[in-house]
Amino acid sequence: MIDHTTLDDLELHKHIRAQKIRLGGNKRLMIFGTLDCRSGKRMKKQNRVFFTSEDEALSEGYRPCGHCMREKYNEWKNGLV
Fold first, then answer.
1. How far is CA 32 from the centre of its chain?
2. Residue numbers of the chain with a pLDDT score lower than 70
3. What's the rounded Cα separation, in Å, for the pair 57 and 50?
């Protein structure tokens, strides 16, 4: 997990291009989703964290976003994840 406040814009874009960052999350709400999620784009920078994989996010206790990851969210909600 990478905290957004520890990265400047250049570093962030470099990590995204190298695919070291694939998902974003809200550390206050414990939700993760895709980088292009409308809900995720609205969150405050101090609440934003990044993950390299779904497994990493799930192991940290985060749940899938109900907007951009509807199918994964429903699996999580039904206890299948």
1. 4
2. none
3. 9
